[in-house]
Amino acid sequence: MDSIKLQRFEKEARSSGYKLDVLDVLFVLLSSTILLMMLLTTDERYLDFGDGNYLYISKRLAEGAVLYRDILAPHPPLLFAVGVILLRINSSLMPVRLFSIILGIATSFLTYMLSYKIFANKKVALVASAIYYMMPIHLTWGRGFEADCLMIIFSLLAFMCVISLSTKGMILASFFQCLLFLQNIHSCLTYYS
User: Fold this and answer.
1) Residues 132-141, buried b or exposed e (16+ Cβ, 10 A)?
2) How far is 34 from 57, CA to CA, in rounded Å?
């Protein structure tokens, strides 16, 4: 019985074409407003632990230090590799802030699409993405260099792939989970608790 429901869900998910409507426009307006508000209120002030710790480690790595030999790090290397790339673009905090803001907008977009895919209701998707925008992880830390922001996006990408119920989706989900584990050791607790 469950396999019949699963097959029906998979068939409906593949056959239903996505059509743009007013709620999609509202999501874009909401996202644009959030983006503009965050850009206008962003500067180079210290925001949170990530700025002090993760960016310091990334800066040391950009200067030639070797991770885990020359400098102690609380996470696997992917987060710091991203930090090194961003600091090499420009040594100021603005590339980091812009990356974090774009990551937050992308996370809200994935929340919108995932909610729509699960519930087939754009109102629910709009509410879900608006709730993400109001969460402290976005509002308070959304501009800082935080490990959690990358963890959330990798988790959402993996989940989107899993619910595709395809072999390709499972392979991609495994890939995103590997990136998740390379980025934040706490993600093990997320998946296995």
Assistant:
1) bbeeeebeeb
2) 30
Q: CA–CA separation, 146 vs 58, rounded Å? A: 12
Contact predicate 78/125, CB 8 Å: no
3-state secondary structure of 12: helix
- How many angstroms separate the CA atoms of 42 and 39, rounded? 5
Domain range for residue 143?
A: 21-192
**What's the number of domains the chain is made of?**
1
b/e per residue 1-22 (b: at least 16 CB within 10 A)? eeeeeeeeeeeeeeeeeeeeee
CA dist 14 and 64 (Å) reads: 48
Q: Is residue 43 part of a domain?
A: yes
One-letter amino acid at 19 equals K
Query: Is 3 domain-assigned?
Result: no
Residue 12 in any domain: the answer is no
Asked if residues 144 and 48 have their Cβ atoms less than 8 Å apart, the reply is yes
CA 162, 164, 168, 169 dihedral sign is negative
Pick the more confident residue, 19 or 4: 19
CA distance 127 to 66: 44
Within a domain: 8: no
Q: Each residue of 19-73: pLDDT tens digit? A: 778 888 888 888 888 778 777 776 666 666 667 788 889 999 999 999 888 988 8
Q: What is the pTM of this model?
A: 0.78
Tokens, residue 67: 């991770």
